[in-house]
Write a structure and sequence with these properties.
The chain is α+β, with helices and mostly antiparallel strands and 444 residues long. 20% of the residues lie in helices and 36% in strands. Belongs to the TRAFAC class translation factor GTPase superfamily. Classic translation factor GTPase family. EF-Tu/EF-1A subfamily.
Length: 444
């Protein structure tokens, strides 16, 4: 089968724990006909038996028992639905603090974000204030390249809210300055809308005026349909960062095509170990396809390599212009919040998350500080910086990693640094080190 002409977008649901992300995701699948009434009735009964009536929609997304018992999402749920113009893959990212690395791997594959906020009295405040997940998620989403955001104000049907325009406006007015400070162009890239994920209002069709007289904007499905996807190059060099791998009649890898196209029978390079591999089969969602382009989530069956020789973060790339593999690179970093007021200086160690790569890294040199107002480098020599600083530095990793300059491939050139489970900085790769024949490092 050929991939149909509908465009494909990955959407990640982010937001504070209990804002209703999984419920909203479940409701979308139900409304778009991905789940039938009988399954819903089964989930409803299960949820009732656990006296968790309001969780039954979330069960569609949260399929493992631990998630159902705790009402928390741990894995990144995968699900698919279609609107008039677009096929969507939902990446249901966990909101809970200890699962932020999972949230990063979800968001790094996403094209658009749906930030779910609870309008219930007290719940918006908890998620938004310091320590709440709403802020960290927005900052991460922006850095990880989620350039378009739908801010969905959920639980509008709650008795404490009752579709109140005042409450909706209050949340919008508090969120806008924060979204601006996180780098979003609110006029162009952000859209707010009210919904009820639990009862499914203003989702597939616009909410009835009898329920919400003041809303004149789109429903969630209409808004998703209208979102512009990121620019992608089907003719560019092939890049597919590997998220996962398994054995199934040979070696199968999974990931999202970030650039270029692939056909059954193609010869590719598996980087960084330079293994020549051949594409035996391509699968998009559940269907076998002959070819696939950028933006598609694929499973690729390969010959020429063993499953145990592949790590997540390896990249399938074209032989003509393979991706670079480096031990060192230059980057522009924004320091968000260092753990325990640590000082950020040469010798600082952290965990680097870049596309599917997770590696320990060390900051080996701070090169210059950037003035956040003028965006220009400051003259003075720096030895250390504090929270909020923007700095250009040299970063080293122990194992070879495949990355690109942000200016060439944004998806493969932006990253986060984490320490003790907290995101301490977000950054973009500005230059790659190519190690020449001698031991000196040259930056390209």
């Amino acid at each position: 089968m050929e991939v149909d002409k509908k465009r494909h977008l990955n959407v990640v649901f982010i937001g504070h724990v209990d804002a209703g992300k999984s419920t909203t995701g479940g409701q979308i699948l139900f409304l778009s006909g991905q789940v039938d009434d009988r399954t819903i009735q089964k989930y409803e009964k299960e949820a009732k038996d656990k006296s968790r009536e309001s969780w039954y929609m979330a069960y569609i997304m949260d399929t493992n028992e631990e998630e159902r018992d705790k009402g928390k999402t741990i894995e990144i749920g995968r699900a698919y639905f279609e609107t008039e113009t677009t096929r969507f893959t939902i990446l249901d990212a966990p909101g809970h603090k200890s699962y932020v690395p999972n949230m990063i791997s979800g968001a790094s594959q996403a094209d658009i974000g749906v930030l779910v906020i609870s309008a219930r009295k007290g719940e918006f405040e908890t998620g938004y204030e310091r320590g709440g997940q709403t802020r960290e998620h927005v900052q991460l989403a922006k850095t990880l390249g989620v350039s378009k955001l739908l801010v969905v104000v959920n639980k509008m049907d709650d008795p404490t809210v009752n579709w109140s325009k005042e409450r909706y406006d209050e949340i919008e007015s508090k969120m806008i300055p924060f979204l601006k400070s996180s780098g979003y162009n609110v006029k162009k890239d952000v859209l707010f809308l009210p919904i009820s994920g639990l009862v499914g209002l203003n989702m597939k069709t616009r909410v009835d005026k009898s329920v919400c007289s003041w809303w004149n904007g789109p429903s969630l499905f209409e808004a998703l349909d209208a979102v512009e996807g990121p620019p992608r190059d089907p003719k560019g060099p092939f890049r597919l960062p590997i998220m996962d791998k398994f054995k199934d009649m040979g070696t199968v890898v999974m990931g999202k095509v970030e650039s270029g196209s692939v056909r059954e029978g193609d010869n590719l390079l598996l980087m960084p170990n330079k293994a020549q591999v051949k594409v035996l089969g391509l699968y998009c969602d559940e269907d076998k396809v002959k070819r696939a382009g950028p933006g598609e989530n694929l499973r690729v069956r390969l010959s020429g390599t063993e499953e145990e020789d592949i790590l997540s973060g390896f990249v399938l790339s074209s032989i003509v212009k393979p991706i670079a593999a480096v031990h060192e690179f230059l980057a522009q970093l924004q320091i968000l919040e260092l753990v325990d007021n640590a000082i950020f200086t040469a010798g600082y160690k952290a965990v680097l998350h870049i596309h599917a790569v997770v590696e320990e890294c060390e900051i080996v040199e701070l090169l210059q500080q950037i003035d956040p107002k003028t965006k220009k480098p400051m003259k003075k020599k720096i030895l250390f910086v504090k929270n909020g600083a923007v700095v250009v530095c040299r970063i080293q990793v122990n194992n070879l990693i495949c990355i690109e300059k942000f200016s060439d491939f944004p998806q493969l050139g932006r990253f986060t640094l984490r320490t003790e489970g907290k995101t301490v900085a977000v950054g973009k790769v500005t230059q790659l080190a190519s190690t020449s024949a001698s031991s000196s490092t040259v930056f390209a």
